[in-house]
């Protein structure tokens, strides 16, 4: 299990690095304490959901919004650390405090993205992720 966790962490960092290399946005690194919690919960959710190589390949290719199982895993991990509520909405105050050190330019993008709801918690979270990726002025990585 320890090797699998280590390989997944390397994979996750690789996915984020590939997305960053293709982006002209500045890189913003999530603080280590918050990053460690998120990675730990991602690993738990991946195992809980029994994801297969198809989902892993989508993550690797940066296509995390094209398969609801991937979005569901992201939602699961962020719910477990308190960044997302049960209705799929992001806890902006917690995210700002724990991840973005209360940067006003990011808060305004998060507030704008929060308005994109959905018919289900998963759809609400997916809409938020799509908006976040587009509007936030930085490329976020662990």
From TrEMBL:
Question: What are the UniProt keywords, alphabetically?
Answer: Signal
Against SUPFAM superfamilies, the record matches this protein to: Insect pheromone/odorant-binding proteins
Q: Which residues form the signal peptide?
A: 1-22
Q: Which GO terms describe its molecular function?
A: odorant binding
Q: Would the keyword Cell membrane turn up in this protein's UniProt record?
A: no
Q: Which InterPro entries match?
A: PBP/GOBP, PBP_GOBP_sf
State the superkingdom. Eukaryota
Q: Which Pfam families match?
A: PBP_GOBP
Name the UniProt record assigns to this protein: Antennal binding protein 6
Lineage, broadest ranks: Eukaryota, Metazoa, Ecdysozoa, Arthropoda, Hexapoda
Q: Where are the transmembrane segments?
A: none
Q: Which PROSITE patterns match?
A: PROKAR_LIPOPROTEIN (PS51257)
């Amino acid at each position: 299990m320890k090797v699998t966790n280590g390989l997944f962490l390397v994979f996750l960092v690789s996915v984020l690095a590939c997305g960053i290399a293709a982006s002209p946005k500045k890189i913003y690194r999530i603080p280590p304490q918050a990053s460690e919690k998120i990675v730990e919960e991602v690993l738990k959710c991946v195992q809980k959901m029994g994801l297969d190589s198809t989902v892993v390949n989508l993550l690797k290719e940066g296509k995390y919004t094209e398969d609801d199982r991937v979005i569901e895993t992201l939602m699961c991990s962020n719910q477990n650390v308190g960044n997302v509520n049960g209705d799929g909405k992001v806890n902006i105050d917690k995210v700002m405090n724990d991840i973005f050190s209360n940067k006003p330019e990011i808060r305004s993008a998060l507030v704008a993205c929060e308005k994109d709801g959905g018919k289900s918690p998963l759809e609400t979270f997916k809409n938020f992720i799509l908006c976040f990726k587009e509007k936030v002025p930085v490329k976020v990585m662990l």
